[in-house]
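Quick illustration, no need to memorize.
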Amino acid sequence: MMDEATGAGHEQGPLAIFHVHPSLRCNLACAHCYSSSSPAARDALPVEAIVTAIDDAAGLGCNVLSVSGGEPLMYAGLPRLLETARAHNMRTQIVTNGWFLGSPALAAAAPWLHLVAISLDGPAAVHDRMRGSPRAFERLVAGLAKIRALGVDFGFVHTVTAENWDQLFATAAFAASAGAKLFQLHPLEMAGRATTDAGPLVLDADTAAKVYVLAAILKARYAGTMAVQVDLLHRTQLRPPSDEDGLAAALGILVMEADGVVVPLAYGFDRRFAVCDIGRARLADAWPGFVREKLPAYRALAARLHRELARADAPDLCNWYELMVDRSARAPVGDMAPA
């Protein structure tokens, strides 16, 4: 769902990310992949259609373009997407599995990139097992010298599991020694391929609490050299949604899935809440209808979840994005039609 960097180092105001999946094509079939990407996937969205959507997203206030997939460095139109975003003064980032860091594809994209977020699953053996390849970690490490030579900032998005959480200090040390600007801890979510291939690796509540504390220690340890963030919220950090919130505060993220449907917040969000299908309508044209007909139901969903998490018997920690996606599938949103 949210195997993505969230704009570390961004200084242009509230984050409003347009997260694009041009294709589900990937050279790997990772056990925890939220989009179930694989080498078998072949379909890809047309470059021009995505360019138009980026233009529209920028007009709506999105100030970050994040591209994943699938493996974004296998999408031939990637440089054009990034160049378009930069023309709108958007920050740009990709989320990659690290296999193609030494490839011409990254060199071609580098002039328009602010950040390369590299997926990392821990030490070599753990990483290779999750990625389904005995060479995955080796390729990642070999590519780090190439990305440093290009002068592009990079970070690691570390999927934290019951198998690797106790190695966080070592994994963070590897990231820092490599020159990473970001170390993002993302607890494994039950989405996509993880529902069948990685279920036993989900963190329980006690382990999630330990990860939260360890993240605070790491944040202090690497302050000033590497940003450390964790995709868990403590109940004291939750802010009630407001009807006055703009795009950045109300949604934070718009996601274009690989079939062209744009949904709020996270990959897999129930499509009754979809903004549009870019194959049928422009994002800019569909936006007023979304604001009028669906955004109120989205805000109501967020308010209900906030009340649920504010109860005295609620867990201290949560992954807001994961819970919102789960609740979206069960939300009473009337007769809103699928995109």
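The two ends are 19 Å apart (CA to CA).
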